[in-house]
Amino acid sequence: MIIYENIRLALFSLKANKMRALLTMLGIIIGIASVIAIMTVGNSMTTSVTDSMESMGANNITVGLQQKEDEEESTEEGLQFGGPGRMKSATDDDGFTYEMLENYCETYADSIQAISASENVGSGQILDGSLYANISATGTSLGYFLANSVDILSGRFFREREFDDGSMVALISDLAVDNLFDGDDEEAVGSQIQVNIGDKYYNFTVIGIYEYDQSSAGFSSTSTKDTTTTLYMPLKTAKELTHTENYLQFTVVTATGVDTDEFVETTEEFFATYYRNNRDFEPSAYSMSSMVEEMTSMLSTITMAISVIAGIALLVGGIGVMNIMLVSITERTREIGTRKALGAPNSSIRLQFIVESIVICLVGGFIGIVLGVGLGIGLANVLGTSATPSVNSIILSLTFSMAIGVFFGYYPANKAAKMDPIEALRYE
User: Fold this and answer.
1) Could you tell me the CA-to-CA distances from 255 to 114, 146, 293 in Å, in that order?
2) Helix (H, G, I), strand (E, B) or coil at 33
3) Cα–Cα distance between 400 and 240 in angstroms, integer?
4) pLDDT, tens digit, for every residue of 326-340?
């Protein structure tokens, strides 16, 4: 009941001195609004970066070959050979075989959603009389389109039978369709095209048209007509054209719920058994999840550092509260003396002014929260990210506001409590 009465008196005091109260709360308002706005923008950017990385396959595992560290060997005659600096390039004979991948998929069937492998056939052109389209021919596995963002506009993806048979079928981009078929997807799907790769001509049947993504290809100074896009064919078809059998690199699309970092180690250990006798190369696996974690941690650290700097305004606001409370006590000296003369204990006087200080900070805190959330959402929209207000920062700000009220209000309140009632009643 006493606290309720003190809150009522504090609100009445704020109402009676609106401008002074607003100026007193200004530091608190600016500090809290800044912290919440910064935390909101920081969380929004972190979420945006994480989502972007995950859409690029942050939980996928890339498996390849890396050269073993060479050790110097000595002959009986004392000659040394080998050692650091001897670079080698992996060949098809060093690659992962189909049997290795099959055993891998069978062993960890519950953890693997798909295997994405590709084979670069080479650059060339699709030719039709005077019309042409520059292409880069690539063979892909069934899981390739799951691991990579390829959107079909017309037609379909490859069928399993076409992969197994090494069929001469292809997916081409909408840019290639613009060059060869005047943008008519219906005419393109099902048509026969002649492809020149390395001065050799191959005939393919177009089964699908995919959307060319300029952002994933990077900046190009060539005209749209001369832009090189990818022609996709079944992986077995590409292997037959390049006369290769094995895989120097592939991507594992992990199943939902799989610990990617742990599965990276499991994958390396599995394939290491096949490369014990390979003197030059060993399997290496990595994922983007660790990169995502580092980037998220870095953004969080930066956000927190800037928030701490903005929080200095809260300290300034607290000093302003202490100053105005000292002024208030001076103005209400006779009131304090009268209350003490009527028997009010020191604890009651102290509580009254501490509550008043807390109320000032909380009112400023609520105003700062509203402004901070609004400012944070506005800045996030300007940056093109979805706003994610930080609930933790809002709760922390309110708690900090109360703490400031107690900390900076205690000294003036204690000074009022220790006031001599006789001297207070004589005060003019």
Assistant:
1) 8, 12, 19
2) helix
3) 69
4) 777 777 777 777 777
